[in-house]
## 1
Amino acid sequence: MKVVNLDLKKSYGEISLQTVEKYMVLNNFSNVLASLVFAATFFSIALIVSYFLLWLTTAILAVCLFCVLIFATLVTLGVIYAVSDFGKAWSWFGPMFESSKTITEFLEKIYLVMPYVGIAALAAAALSIALLAKSQNENKVAKIVWLSISIVILVFCVIFEFSFKGGL
């Protein structure tokens, strides 16, 4: 068994104001970049999922409305149309799909910019990993792993966004 002097292993030289400032700048800047990468990753995933959820929710609501209207018509044998304004409920389908279309048009405007935000986030992730690798931060391994996972997710999001009408 070899005896290792831990004091020699841990010493990186003399502690000065410049080394502390350099450590703080590298650590803080890599933390800021990592936070931006995590935010961009979350926003990219949320944007992609929002398309599917919006139209899935609209379709489910339309099916539910249709079932309720058919059920009410069959149960009352159509008498409900004669005594109330229940027939106007059939016109609710138009505004429901129009509002979904309006939200989709708004998402498409954001969708045009998101591939470039993803590319910038990929560059920020690479820079953050480089700064973390250079710094002497004790918690850098977990952050580097999360940034690597974010890079993989961002690559898929950027490819997906470019392939489906994304990009200016």
## 2
Amino acid sequence: MNEPRHYVQTGLQRAGLPGAGLPNDRLARVAARRAFVDLKQDFIHAVAALEDERGEWLRGQVRRAEEPEDLLMLRGHVFACLAGRDAGRTERRRMLRRSLDSLFPDSAPRSGFMAF
């Protein structure tokens, strides 16, 4: 019986889904996807109350984001729109910072302070 070429090259036999990976690989992909979805929901919440044209643009950009890096590139724009001392904006900034730190621990701007 002739096996398809990709089965021979990868060492996979005719069982299950070819190229699906090991269970731990699938669990890691599911966990990464959930983390991205959580981050995207936090971004959506952060920009939901922005009423100007820039807010509308940001909502569209967030909706179209397909990877965590897409959201990481938007963080500066979002934080700029959330600037100010308004309690709601301050809370959304904190929530977004926590969310970003959970997925991108080194995403915070450098400062002169460091943890001991």
## 3
Amino acid sequence: MTKEELATLLDELEIQVNEGIQSDENTSVYPRIVYWEFIWDSLTASGDEYDTKVTYQVSFFSQTPRHKKLLELKQKLNEKGLFPIINHEYIQEDKHFHSYFALEVLENV
């Protein structure tokens, strides 16, 4: 999967999506996704870099567990042959669920 394919897949869910940081106006919008890169791994051949494997965290916020849009996201990833381990936590302070996973994509950084 490329970054462009990831962005398209997330947009197809037709919910609020932000890359990098969450905008202030979206902090109380549910469901929503925020995703950002946290690992760059250079792919090399013969001592030269030819591409970069970038790992993103994808965070899904909702007011209910197993939200239908989270299940739709999981299904879309599975259809692409991607089966990330999805972690869940309940944020008592804000009374919402946070589901998150790491996903590796190829990018020309």
## 4
Amino acid sequence: MQTYTSRAFTMSKDAQSIEGMVKNPALLQPYVEKFGDKLPVKNLSFTEDGVSVEAPIVGNVTFTRVDTDTPGVIKYQGKGTPVPLALNIFLKPDGDKTSAQLSLDADIPAFMGGMIEGKAKSGLAKAADFLEVLDFDRLFKK
């Protein structure tokens, strides 16, 4: 199992609110419908406990939230992925903000690690950069 981790970053919303949003991806569906033509992915959809997307080469991929016993950790398990994948979101309260970090666990053969590492780290870095500058109050009009 390979684990790739983003840098630690801060989001401009309290941890309880962020956790509620992350645990219920369906809250983002109206934004996908509004801005779907500007997104770099196809057929992105959300449910109360998961995210589905059409990925190049592999087809439809779903990430479903799974329960964890660790406070501040939200985990999404991949289904339909070419190798077993899990996305972990680590949240820690920091006053009215949230310290966070992302990690991707991939069960890949050792010889493929070098080919995957760059893309995984790049994707996690872009996600961290995006989440760090996202204005959650404006996004959810609160």
